[in-house]
Design a protein that fits this description.
Elements (H helix, E strand, L loop, with lengths): L4 H12 L6 H6 L4 H4 L3 H15 L15 H9 L6
Helix pairs in contact: 1-4, 1-5
């Protein structure tokens, strides 16, 4: 992984979406990931990948604003002590 959290998260989005959402699309998007085509299965894959990569637990009981895009996800992770 690179030293830029947002770029790394965009790579995870691309992998979780099986390439349907490219890294560049994830980085440039103003719309939520769901609007870009991230399916519910893709969301679960992304959550699992983020939890594994960063050793954090994403709270599924809260409003999942962290799925609005790589920016909100990076903000969410930084607030939980993930560097980048």
């Amino acid at each position: 992984m690179s030293t830029d959290l947002t770029t790394d998260l965009a790579d995870l989005v691309e992998a979780a979406s099986d390439g349907d959402i490219t890294r560049d699309d994830a980085l440039d998007a103003e719309a939520p990931l769901v609007a870009l085509g991230l399916t519910s299965l893709g969301q679960l894959r992304l959550i699992q990948a983020v939890e594994r990569a960063y050793g954090v637990r994403l709270d599924l009981d809260d409003d999942p604003v962290y799925l609005d895009g790589v920016g909100p996800l990076a903000t969410y992770l930084r607030a939980r002590g993930v560097p980048g």
